[in-house]
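Support case: user asked for a sample of complex input and structure output to validate their parser. Sending the pair below.
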Amino acid sequence: MTYLADVAALTRKDLRVELRGRDTLPAMLLFVLATLVVFHFAIPDAAGDDAAYGLLWVAIVFTALLGLARAWVPEQEHGVLDGLVLAPCDRSAIWLGKTLATLAFLLAAQAVALPAFVLFFEPLDATAIAGVLLADIGICAVGSLMSAMAAASRARELLLPLLVLPLAIPLIVGGVGAAVSADGERFLLFLLLYDAVFAVLSWASFEYVVTE
Amino acid sequence: MIRGRDLEKRYGRKRVLRGVDIAVVQGGFAVVTGPNGSGKTTLLRLLAGLALPTRGDLVVEADRSCIGYLAHEPLVYPELTAVENLDLFGRLYRVRERRERIGMLLERFSLWDARNERVSTYSRGMTQRLALCRALLHDPDLLLLDEPYSALDEAGATLLDRELEALAGTRTVVVATHDPERLAAFQSGGVALA
């Protein structure tokens, strides 16, 4: 219970910092909407549904990257990460709190992006939406860890996409598969497995990322 | 409580600390002095467990929950208020009677009236006082202070003097400073870095 209380306190802190600073979420919302509008005018009508689903995933992944790039900025300012690392709580709680907060921002961006996608392109069925939600969990879990690694580097803006995008490829495969395949449930299971494996790996390895 | 022998720290090819010995007994008050770039901050980071020595032996008989660390940076969120910052760290440090302790520290460091203002609106001196509150919040056995007087005005410095006087002898304290004369009354040992 103490662990969950720590996670809740850290997540609440991230949401509060974002609510006050408004640094990340407005940028994510504007970016995903602008991307969908650009795609709407860039894709010829004859391109078909599958191309549209692919572009939805491009928008989702890059919107997530935008959020992840800012995820550890509040901790970098004033060196707060040292304070959190020194605290006697389980260090994985810091990662989990950050993952949940980033997931909340991404879900908020998608609450706008998915209706916009339906408006501009094609309807989304329940399997496609489930695919998006499962992929969100995976990208936030892996992305929060990679973002913490990148934050320690001087070239963090360059490093983050290089670390996250290769790891996001299975999520894109699963997400697009869930949307376009006749056997979408199989892809949902694949996404579920990815989430479980990579969430555990990220949870277990976070301590080694933030300490020497 | 602290025993370090022949400590060395490198970041890549750059050696920031070389051949440092340190010994501080429980309840001791050690002052770390040295010019800019001599490795005072690095030494305190080693003692806090935030960095590992590249060479040498270091034993610090205190776990994370018993260490209070005041860094160059305040280690608080500028977008949160003083109370919100201290409440977060109080939860993470499992501070008993957290609200009372936070209120008492804010009173003691003259931040009570500004407790609900965002730290981003604080002056540098107020932020430093809040950083001191954060370091003392869990009543640590080992206190590591990196330039604690920086940015404090005379009133703030006097408050800190009084706090250190109360802690001297009952807690183990290591202070990195450019002004060792100020701490001469409490000092029981020291490390001079070249």
